[in-house]
Amino acid sequence: MTSTSWDPTLYLGFDDHRARPFHDLVARIGATAPRRVVDLGCGPGNLTGLLAARWPGAELNALDSSAEMVAAARERGVDAQRADVVDWMPAPDTDVVVTNAVLQWIPTHPELLPRWLGALPRGAWFAMQVPGNFGAPSHALVRELLAEPRWRGSVELRGEKSVPEPDEYAELLSGTGADVDVWETTYLHRLTGTDPVLDWISATALRPVRDALAADDYAAFREELAPRLRAAYPQRPDGTTWFPFRRIFAVARTA
């Protein structure tokens, strides 16, 4: 998985907006009394407790590859463990797996999905959500700036095709024999602040840029990027900014 660093505090700056897809995803899981529930890529653990509350009788495993995120989750009382998604395999009694906004960081995740579903017991639920906005200005403008002479070669970001389209996920998951439900949603987030979209992506899409550049260079990069994002996502007269965010969901139940 990616070796760049995470800032749990920065990530939680838009906690309410980032939590909405998780709620929508988990609502589609029909498990009633699972034996083991896995939060695969639990982040700072702010949503893991919702899984524990829904299935209090289950053994709950919270896993993340980031030491910073695992530490933040433990501070919340979540018994999180550090593990790389690429190396993970479900235990035989795993009845629910939730992976929320994680797999977009794993280029090989389409190869992992059939392997995981094949290892799950009959009737298990697998639920995933990934951003589907890599072609949006919030990402395209970053790539454009990185292609300019000053920044060229400093870091390589994921392209527009970083995740499959919904129909591709549907074919991939249904090919395992599972009963599959795939959909997409574009959330229109109402943000506040001078540079809210820049602040949003600073915790996610700009993470590799931050890690690749010296502190002064990263500050200069953000300064060049800010007006481009403001133009793409203009502030409304009331001081708020609309930020469309497309997400892709898939829920599969093994046969």
From TrEMBL:
- The record's principal subcellular location, in a coarse class, is cytoplasm
- So what EC number does this one have? 2.1.1.144
HAMAP family linked to this entry:
Tran_acon_Me_trans (MF_00560)
One GO MF annotation is:
trans-aconitate 2-methyltransferase activity
What keywords does the record list, in alphabetical order? Cytoplasm, Methyltransferase, S-adenosyl-L-methionine, Transferase
Localization terms from the record = Cytoplasm
Q: Which Gene3D superfamilies match?
A: S-adenosyl-L-methionine-dependent methyltransferases, Vaccinia Virus protein VP39
Its gene? tam
Sum up the protein's function in the record's words.
Catalyzes the S-adenosylmethionine monomethyl esterification of trans-aconitate.
Q: Which family does it belong to?
A: Belongs to the methyltransferase superfamily. Tam family.
A GO biological-process term: methylation
Q: What class of enzyme is it?
A: transferase
Q: What is this protein identified as?
A: Trans-aconitate 2-methyltransferase
Reaction(s) catalysed by this chain's protein:
trans-aconitate + S-adenosyl-L-methionine = (E)-3-(methoxycarbonyl)pent-2-enedioate + S-adenosyl-L-homocysteine
Q: Which InterPro entries match?
A: SAM-dependent_MTases_sf, Trans-aconitate_MeTrfase, Trans_acon_MeTrfase_C
